[in-house]
Specification:
By secondary structure, the protein is an all-alpha fold. It has five helices and no strands. Helix content is 82%, strand content 0%. α2 packs antiparallel against α3. The longest helix is centred in the N-terminal third of the chain and has 27 residues. The chain is elongated. The protein starts with a helix and ends with a helix. 17% of the residues are buried.
């Protein structure tokens, strides 16, 4: 989500810089617009991915990041940074990986069954 937002913000600022040339037919301007459209689609996809699997408070924080991406100029940087920090704090629990009890049992059983044939081979050799 944050990568998509940063990519979109960067593409947006690049379009603004290239727009200063006042030439809509310039190849750099056309490339910048294509990149802006692609990054917008990437951002929309990331938001949909968050909405698919995250709790409501993470979805709200992601939506705030998406809303502040559109801010331009130096005045738009601070709200964007604040929204990024809020999203990270909201999603921190969901991003944390603590293995569940059944996952530990599965690892133990896998280790046990992978080492068992070797023990049987050693016993049959002796």
């Amino acid at each position: 989500m944050l990568d998509a937002a940063a990519h979109h913000r960067l593409a947006q600022s690049y379009v603004e810089v290239v727009k200063v040339t006042k030439d809509d037919k310039h190849p750099l301007f056309m490339e910048a617009v294509r990149d802006l459209l692609a990054s917008g689609a990437e951002l929309a996809s990331a938001i949909l991915g968050v909405q698919l699997c995250a709790p409501a408070y993470v979805i709200d924080a992601a939506q705030k990041v998406a809303d502040t991406v559109q801010g331009s100029g130096p005045d738009g940087v601070e709200p964007y940074k604040d929204a990024q920090v809020a999203f990270l704090n909201a999603a921190r629990y969901d991003l944390d990986y603590n293995p569940k009890r059944w996952q530990l049992w599965k690892q133990r059983k896998t280790r046990k069954f992978t080492t068992q044939p070797r023990a049987l081979e050693r016993a049959s050799e002796g």
